[in-house]
Amino acid sequence: MKITIDGRAIDVSEGTTVLVAARRCGIDIPSLCDHTALEPFGACRICLVEIRGRRGYSPACATPVEDGMDVISESPALAALRRGILELILSEHPAACLVCAEKTACDEFKATLRKMDEVTGCVHCPANGRCALQRVADRLGVKVVPDPARRRDGEVRRDDPFIDRDNSLCILCGRCVRVCGDVRGASVLTFVGRGSETVVDTAFSRRMIESGCQFCGACVDACPTGSLAERAARAALCPDRSAAAICPLCAMGCALDVHSREGRILFAAPSPEGPANCGQACVKGRFALAAALAGGDRILRPYIRMDGKLVPAEWDRALDAAAALLKKIPGRETAFILSADAPLGELYALAKWGAASKAAFSVLPASSPPAAFDRSDAELNFSLDEIGAAGTIVLLGLDPPVSHPLVWLEIRRALNKGAKLISVGDLPQTARLHLSGEIRTRPGREAAALNVLARAVLAAGVSAKVRARPGFDTFRAMLEALPAGAGEGVSNEDALSFAAALCDGDGPAVFLAGNDVFIPAADPATIASISNLALLAGARLIPLAAAANERGWLAVRESFGAAEKPEEEIRAGVRAGTIRALFVSRRDFDGKGGRPNVLIGQGSRWNSTLRQADVVFPMTTSLEAAGSFMNAEGRIQAWTEALPPVGEAKPGWEIAAALARRCDLFGFGYDSAADIVQELEARITARPGGNAKNRRRRERGFRAPLPSSFGPIPETDGDRPYILKATPPPDLHEGRDLAVEISGLRRLRRPGTVRMNPDDAAREGIGEGETVILAAGEIETRAEAALEEGIPPGVLRTTAGESPPPGPAAARVRKVR
Fold it and tell me: What angle do CA 387, 391, 395 make, to 5 degrees?
């Protein structure tokens, strides 16, 4: 379409609003309620324009273009109208600083001594310098507010984690209400009251944390004033630097704009251009990044152990000492303990070094879904859009609002279009109200339950394409031979309902596999059952990574054929003396009574492992050096240095390359992390058998034989008759639980839970509010049933302060109250 704005001819597409069209060609139309992530609202009326041939004025944000439209965005009448509207808005907002004639010289005048309080205004506002109201007031040239100012009732509320609320700064634009409901699907905030008494609040004026808020920060980012503000940044000075970065705190790879001052993070906000997050974030990336990376006991320089003590050393001396120690131990007796939160360059350099010396690696937990399905030739790459377009979504050991908030946004998009959401497993669901069905399985017996569901899907009918898959006839015969009632808690009604939901879904089915379905380990029976069920249903199976570079390590591991061993096997090797040298990076490795002959460590913070090491190297954090991650989708995303390095810290890839050269290895002459990633990409493209593996993934068939025992079952006895299962913390970063370190996260997360089958709980008479003693081996955990918090029967909340280790455990259960 062709339209004209202020005499300028513009070509625009159908459906574009006048406001968007104007901004695309550099014409500034002021607005307060408009937001790129939201549908037009037309609340503030600041963006009124004149359209030739129409009576009155039209809001530019809510007026779609029409072919031949002639728009006037600036005129004396429009300027007067906009100023009048803004003056009315400012009559309920502190405006002393906005209209002060001396505001440009404010700091100079404040330097004089005085014996009176300073007025409340922009200089004290948490949004000072970032406030849309400031920009609009300057744009419209407002000099005075003729109406007497009225402050909205209510004090600043500071009773929630991370976010402060100040209704006196609210202009009722509705952006926070709409982004919370329409984009995030939480609907925590709403308009309360009528007329001049209207405020933005929660239902019954409860705290946000009591109203289901996950503290994604979308409301803070959408607020045009300082009414909703990040508490940690309220008193901070304006940043002097802003840099783009990729969040290292989960696997989704959110693009963030990191704002800092004098080398210290003030706050981070999601980037609207982020390919994965599109301007959205989660509680960790939005509010916990500074505490996760900037706090703690930083290591400022290299250290060498001398006479039993760690003493500071120069870099060259420390590198030479570490290389001399490592060269004394054969490579096959060396192991690398790495973190999947490390950038690609670091993982690649260490893997290349280890592969050349035939060393072993321990990186991913046994419950990693991408690692489990990578071994089975599953397709790991996916797009978030696939989830949003699904007709039926099945959650397998996954609570997406907590573990994968960006995935939850896509699930919400699918639900808004009528999709069904089904949870299979025993993990409590934060979004239980959105479930179409919930099938509770017994801990440790997931494979059996999945096979019974597969039998129901087979009985409902499958397509000819599915029947043509290799191994289908054998698989069908095994399913039909299953004994009746072999579902380990899955009733016939649940199985039939599950099959009907898959058959009746309007759109493709998507299975999302999370860590919990593989606790304590990704055993072959569970992998086979999930793969077979997904193939039978014609569903897209997406195993979701948890750590920032989990997918990146799989690519590195495959490119070198690196031997990865469970961490417990490395510990056993240390105790047995078959592992005599350890290189630990970004981790706190508990040897459980064993220490190798040589222990080399690198990290940004001191921990118990580094304090025992022979040589310690100071590393930069993820944001203090350029790097890249491969996110859960398989997308490689790079960033440049967002913060200056602290002390003498260096990037992990640089330390690894320098050590490898001193160990007489070739091929480590890298100049930057980008050089390493380029080499990795070349190896992935050219690796032998790569095309054959991709072909196997496309043509994979049903996995046989079907385990008749439905997978390994933890042993039980008369004293320990039940299987319990613990959930790992959702906020792990480089082996640290951020919820322990950050008080806001600690308030948000449920205490560690141990889960028990609801039937077993009922059999023991464990009811609401009762306390039990759980004993399994050396585990002694005091727990209580937390039904009053919406947790279903059989999910017990620990009250001892620490959670038991993850994994099924047989346990004695007796009531004590």
Answer: 60
